[in-house]
Design goal:
Elements: H1 3-17, E1 30-35, E2 40-44, H2 57-67, E3 73-79, H3 90-98, E4 105-109, E5 115-119, H4 120-123
Parallel strand pairs: 3-4
Antiparallel strand pairs: 1-2, 1-3, 4-5
The structure holds tetrahydrodeoxyuridine (THU).
């Protein structure tokens, strides 16, 4: 994937991260999705005093993509607040897979800018997919 596009997504994820509502964990996460249509959508984690209602940054970004009318992910970047890659939680892996192919790239970026690329197929092998609903 083109480095300029990745950098654009990284900047978008960092910007979204600044809006994180995470007073309970103090863990600010940002995410940016590039859709197949070439649009960029971003999101941050949104926590709640009722802890289980908190939403991950990836879910916010994917919700923005769907709200914007797009249904396919070309790439996604997840920005961590420290120098460890923030891998998506199990639920978010499933949410990404809903709109992605096995080879869709997922880039984790750290606070200092280190990029860790993987695919959603690596993060979530044997994903449950809509094809399973057909039979
Ligand atoms: N979080 C994300 O937003 N994305 C991830 O990939 C992992 C965790 C959020 C959820 C919660 O608001 C905080 O980080 C601590 O778990």
């Amino acid at each position: 994937m083109d480095n300029n596009i990745i950098q654009k997504l990284v900047e978008s994820a960092y910007e979204a991260q600044t809006h994180s509502h995470s007073p309970y964990s103090g863990f600010k996460v940002g995410a940016a999705v590039l859709s197949k249509n070439g649009n960029v959508f971003s999101g941050c984690n949104v926590e709640n005093a009722a802890y289980p209602l908190g939403q991950c940054a990836e879910a916010t970004a994917i919700g923005a993509m769907v709200t914007g009318g797009d249904k396919a992910i070309e790439a996604i970047v997840i920005a961590s607040p420290n120098d460890e890659a923030c891998f998506p939680c199990g639920g978010c892996r499933q949410k990404i897979a809903e709109f992605a192919a096995d080879d869709t790239p997922v880039y984790m970026v750290t606070k200092s800018g280190s990029l860790h690329p993987v695919t959603i197929g690596e993060l979530l092998p044997y994903a449950f997919r809509d094809t399973a609903l057909a039979s």
